[in-house]
Amino acid sequence: DLSGFQFYDSGTTAVEAGMRVLRAASKRNEMISCFYDYHGKTQGAVSLGHIRSAVYGSTRVPGMHMVPRPDAYRPLWTKPDGSIDTDRYIAFYDEYIDKATVHDVAGFVLEPIQGWGGSVMPPDDFFPKLRRYCDEKGLLLMADEVLTGWGRTGKWLCMEHWGVVPDVVTLGKGFGNGFPVTGVAVREQYKESFETISASSSYGGNPMACAAALASTEVIEEEQLLARSEHLGELALKHMKRMMERNPIVGDVRAKGCLMGIELVKDRK
């Protein structure tokens, strides 16, 4: 389904291009992202995230709205049995868009798994529900896979874990294995938006960058690194769970492939 592609040279420029695609494809302007997601350091990308003002400054461009995302370890809403209530999060998004006079929304921009936010992994039903909600409301969904994509979680794209195809995907980091090459992929019906936004980059798509991305991709395939990543994650999670049993300061452990997190707490309760 992801047939349109454009090369860039950094994660943040890919995110900026992805946002422009959302606006061009939807003919709307505003974005909804999540607290503590991280999307880059240029103005538009910074405005998608909630970052300490002492580090990057507090200025956010207009039309950028942030909502909470599900964290199974620290849920805002729970069911009677104590489990996280993902339906309530989706309902909140709908209420927010309706009541906050946010009527010019192009779509949602999210990290599949929060990186800088603490390796926070969503419940398995969250992204399928968000995909259905976006389809019902005519909103687009952009997955920022700069951190999570190209094998880190045991899949080419992290969104594959939940069987969800976003409308726009950004790639980076593992895509070039350290070489500055990133990309934006879009679904078939939106690939003409690249022409609309005059997508280009001074260094994106240069021969050396393309060779690096191709070589990285070939090695992942030839050495079966997707399965390796998944296997290492399973082994690490077993060890981390044993750590949690022995150490009360470990509140939670989580892993999906080689993207892992250990949450340290003063009190588990």
Regions with little confidence, pLDDT below 50 for 5+ residues: none
The share of residues in extended strands comes to 15-25%
Query: What does the radius of gyration come to?
Result: 19 Å
Individual helix count = 8
Structural class: alpha/beta
Helix content: 25-40%
Sheet with most strands: 7 strands, mixed
The average pLDDT score comes to 93
Termini separation comes to 44 Å
**Tertiary shape:** globular
Order of helices and strands: EHEHHEHEHEEEHHHEE
Strand order of the largest sheet: 1-7-6-5-4-2-3
DSSP strand count:
9
Which features characterize this protein?
single chain; 269 residues; alpha/beta; seven-stranded mixed beta sheet; two-stranded antiparallel ribbon; 19% strand; globular
What is the strand and helix layout of this fold?
Layout (H helix, E strand, L loop, with lengths): L1 E7 L2 H16 L3 E5 L8 H5 L5 H4 L7 E4 L18 H14 L5 E6 L15 H12 L2 E6 L22 E4 L10 E6 L5 H4 L10 H16 L2 H22 L3 E7 L2 E6 L5
Parallel strand pairs: 2-3, 2-4, 4-5, 5-6
Antiparallel strand pairs: 1-7, 6-7, 8-9
Describe the overall structure:
With 269 residues, the protein is an alpha/beta fold. It contains 8 helices and 9 strands. The protein has helices at 11-26, 43-47, 53-56, 86-99, 126-137, 193-196, 207-222, 225-246; strands spanning 2-8, 30-34, 64-67, 105-110, 140-145, 168-171, 182-187, 250-256, 259-264. A 7-stranded mixed β-sheet has the order 1-7-6-5-4-2-3, sandwiched between helices. The longest helix is centred in the C-terminal third of the chain and has 22 residues, at 225-246. It is globular. It starts with a strand and ends in a 5-residue tail after the last strand. 39% of the residues are buried.
